[in-house]
Amino acid sequence: MAATLHRLARTVGVALAVATCGISSLSVAAAATPPEQKIVGGERAKIADHPYTVFLTNNSGFQFCGGTIAAANKIVTAAHCVKGKTADSIKVVAGREDKQASDGTTAAVSKVWVHPQYTTATAGFDVAVLTLGSNLTQKAAPLASSADADLYKEGANSTVLGWGTTSSGGAASRYLLKVDVPVTSDATCKAAYSQYSNTSMVCAGLPEGGKDSCQGDSGGPMIGGGKLIGVVSWGEGCAAPKKPGVYARVAAYHDVLQEQIKS
Ligand code: ARG
């Protein structure tokens, strides 16, 4: 499968980071996408302005995904980031903008909850909740709910944050980056991706491309109206024209997430 994708990606000259959508797809993306397809026309962000933004590392300190503080000891991330991982193989880093710095807090994970219906990112349900062994002091982000339909309208502003790659297949960012991307209509996203589901996903990006999340940003926050409206999930390449980023639609999972966050 990976080899097939690899060959296909080479052939058509696009990165197909769709099926696994994790760091394991990096080799696929690396072979295929021209340099300078930047994550995205992003810029540096201050952690103090987005204190709910965290990154996930393995026990070697390697950053593999992002996440969002939803309560003092609860992190919302993508299912594809943590499925199959044990709690003791994941650390959550909060309050740190520069991955090479040592400020902020590194928290242990005591429980990994993955949406029970999750299979692959392109099939939806790409949400997970980590329970921490200790409480963080950084501010949490509220989850969007069914009352927040306005935040999902075409053209609504969203800000996506992460430490992911700054070129498709390239190196991850040392510093927290952010990019502002408009929410696309369901029709636009469906036209881009047959797998798009308007009940479990939301897309954002510009028709001409140039602004997007990318590999390693997965699990991280998509913020609209001050709420968590999406979780970085998947896309074809990064920032390509007519290929918006796809995010887990948080409002659709509000209740099931909130249940995990309260417990
Ligand atoms: N699946 C990627 C990850 O695991 C995120 C991809 C987002 N892609 C995009 N074009 N927005 O980090």
Automatic annotation (TrEMBL):
PROSITE patterns: TRYPSIN_DOM, TRYPSIN_HIS, TRYPSIN_SER. Gene3D superfamilies: Trypsin-like serine proteases. GO terms for molecular function: serine-type endopeptidase activity. Residues 39-262 form the Peptidase S1 domain. Keywords: Disulfide bond, Hydrolase, Protease, Serine protease, Signal. Residues 1-30 form the signal peptide. One of its GO terms (biological process) is proteolysis. Belongs to the peptidase S1 family. PANTHER family: FI18310P1-RELATED, POLYSERASE-RELATED. This is Trypsin. The lineage of its organism: Bacteria, Bacillati, Actinomycetota, Actinomycetes, Pseudonocardiales.
